[in-house]
User: Fold these one by one.
Assistant:
Number 1:
Amino acid sequence: MARRHWLDPLARKVLQAMGDLPKDPLRVDTSPAPSEETTVAPSWCIDVNRATAEQWRQLPGCSDVMVDQLLRLQQGGVQFSQIEDLAQLLDISESLCEQWRPHLIFRWHGDAPQLPKHSPLDLNAASPILLAKTLPWPDERLERLIAERRREPFQNLADLQERLCLPPATVEALIGRVRFGARPAGPSLPPRG
């Protein structure tokens, strides 16, 4: 049997990489073959930010409504950085989330966003004052948001993006930071002073 060096394994690997120690002899793996119960890597994966409708439909429980919403956001330039974004956006269960997880790859195309730090703001119910304090938007955009949500509550980010003509960067900044609940009541946005 080859004599092992007295250094800890990490130091030994460093010295081997530098050429100061010979490489360890190859060892034959005598462990038993994996059983059928062993978790197997998924045979297919999708890039969440570039997926086609057919790829989304491969996921168990991914409905046509979900596919439509995801494609609309993708066409609007919106990207996702984590599965929690999808779970919140699509309102999917934890178990479905775990079924999807091995098949999803989150490749960010461009600069990565910052993750949210606060609980989500309900864009359909938040007061105009809270909207003005929370969203760094121009007054005209906030007024349009309030007028549109009075007409009909927003359903999701894709609906918000389309109705307000929001740029992708603005929508990406809202992922995980907003939700779409009940219809609001109350006055319009007060003037900023």
Note: The two ends are 82 Å apart (CA to CA).
Number 2:
Amino acid sequence: MTSKVPRIALRPQPSAGQHADPRFGSATITPHLLRYLTLVAAERGHDLGPALQRAGLSVAALNSVEQRVSYRQGSRVISDALRELGDPALGLAVGRRQRVTAWGLVGLGLLASPTLYDALRLGVRYHGITGSMLDYRMEPVPGGAAILATARYAGSELQTFLLEESFSSIVALIRDALHEDFAPHAVFVRHARPPYGDEYARYFRCPVVFGAPDDRLVFAAPWLEHALPGADAYTLAQVLELLGSARTLGRERQDLVEGLEVSIARRLPQVPPLTQQARARGMSERTLRRRLAECGTTYEALVDYVRLVRAEELLTTRDLPLHAIAALLGFSDARTLRRAVTRWFGKSPSEMRRSEPPPHAS
């Protein structure tokens, strides 16, 4: 493999969701990343249980097949872990710790794929099922192909962590499934070189470009054409059928949850009754409650999330009195708002106003 950085036409890519979005409270993400974050912390003698509890989660919940978490919950746990462990390179460590089996059905599909290129295409296509907190696409480049990663929500301070976890886990899975000697052709990241920048070169074993126009992991054609030792057409066909069903179900659940959140957000300070929401969707209240339970949430929890998002925005970007904010959120008075803010954020409204804007806000 050449040590030269390949000549690739890099062009800036638009970041997804460059504004505060109430949907980041939707519990639609599998807890894969948080499972391995918790595991790495435990291996270092640190218990993330309290951090999970503050986000409304638990270690047991992370191991439930049906469990889904919101972007907000994931971000909160990651932020707490970075602060408590004091390791800015934690994303690299969490990614390196993973194996193909960590990705469940998607991991099995990767193993059963004919070539590395086919495996990468499958991973990008079904990345949502793996609990990714970034979005991906794959595109050809001279001499190979690249996976590009983009933020799902606005310029988060967690972007570096998420990117490092993502790129290092992809490389870890390939080394696990194909060969320990695997190395990408090059790594391009938009952030500046961190103090631990040497760890990139040691782990990825390829040229790394910091301050690039976009975030991409580049693969050379010889590696992409490598046959995977576990390739099996019959198993792959079974896995693809299951993944297709899972993705369809996941989209239906996400559409339901996000649709309800948007409806609630548009109607604040009035909260539409559940009966009205069910009728608008052509189902009974009981059916809607059951559908939400299958998504791992309740209507009351969605209302709480929408209010949380709006409260954070109003407290950190507006100079309104508390009674006015309470009225905008549909609370009876400022005292009720104070209690809710303390429950949501672990701090008072006045402390919220002294804080920096939230990571997901633009």
Note: The chain has two domains: 22-231, 245-354.
Number 3:
Amino acid sequence: MTIRYHCRHCKTEIGSLPFESARETLRLLEELDRKEEERFLTVGKDGDLTVRCICEECEHTLQSNPDYYTFTKWIQ
């Protein structure tokens, strides 16, 4: 099992952790409520876990353009 991190805005793969290195991350993910799980986590057919987060570029763009927070999808 691998934990993969993808930007929820631009879909860029940010990185991944093999299961053996991800124990602390898994412990943190257990604290998510049901809505957060549905919004941020996906389990693939191969058992890999994908975490939707935000990359540095998208974070910088949102900080520079706070009105983008009002859009459901701001990257075309």
Note: The beta strands are 2-7, 13-18, 41-43, 49-53.
Number 4:
Amino acid sequence: MDSSTLASLPEERESTDQPQQQDQSLSAFASLPHRPPTQTSLQKYSPVDWLGYFDREDDICIPDSNDVFHVYMAGKEGPVVFCLHGGGYSGLSFALSAKIIKEKARVVAMDLRGHGKSTSENDLDLSIETMCNDVVAVVKAMYGDSPPAIVLVGHSMGGSVAVHVAARKAIPSLAGLVVVDVVEGTALASLIHMQKILSSRMQHFSSIEKAIEWSVRGGTLRNIDSARLSIPTTLKYNESKKCYIYRARLEETEQYWRGWYEGLSEKFLSSPVPKLLLLAGTDRLDRALTIGQMQGKFQMVVVRHTGHAIQEDVPEEFATLILNFISRNRIGPHGVEIPGLRRPFQSQPK
């Protein structure tokens, strides 16, 4: 993650820092007459329903507030892989991988505040404190005071939320932490470019199909099957402009961006649970993580031939890495004993 790829906040880096990919037929055979889009090309970018990937969806109402968080769920047994998406994405970012993970574990993918189908009293409050409170509140609302073993998985902005939640030790059954393609040093360095990236991306789409096509051709996502699932819930229809616009108003949340990433490496390294860092390139480790990795404080895997959204671009490989992490650390339905982390609902030995 360097300044040219800008892998932090808006998760839109490739579509703006690199020229938009051109259709090969247009560049190689420019003299040929333009052909109108066929029904097949429209179908190629048509939305796909989440059913068949997740098993069900639900709205989690938070007591004493007007906040309602949308979650997608899959699987019946095993630990809970609790997924937090990046800025501008939604819980459906994990749909393709959930179909595989649910064979051996449970999956919960949450639409964070200001994203997807979640609604809150203040959709623009994306402070790290508020988002952490949201996650803890959803876990408590779903599982009460005795939650099952939980593996927090966070992509980019969601990765920072996962790390901060783990650092709070607010989930008594936390059994693992997986961070996807976000590192403190390079994330902070790239923040200066974020507003430019957000303003440079395409803002309006005449149809959902056009938005899906743009995300794939522009390089934001490399897997068309995942784009057809995840892109629709990142949009909303604007009645006055008669077009689709982005659901998340990231450009209005700049005051919170630095708080997402400051101190992230140390919080990650000090979290007293098994840890996995998935990266799309080897140049993304900062000094603290490089030292920690050499000391064996966490497992790191570099996933080749993928963009920033590893879970979308290579869902099979992503799912396999998650399941191997669960197996390697013997994370079962009731969690594993983590030295130094006492679960408050367990009775003490006499």
Note: Confidence is low (pLDDT under 50) at residues 1-33, 334-350.
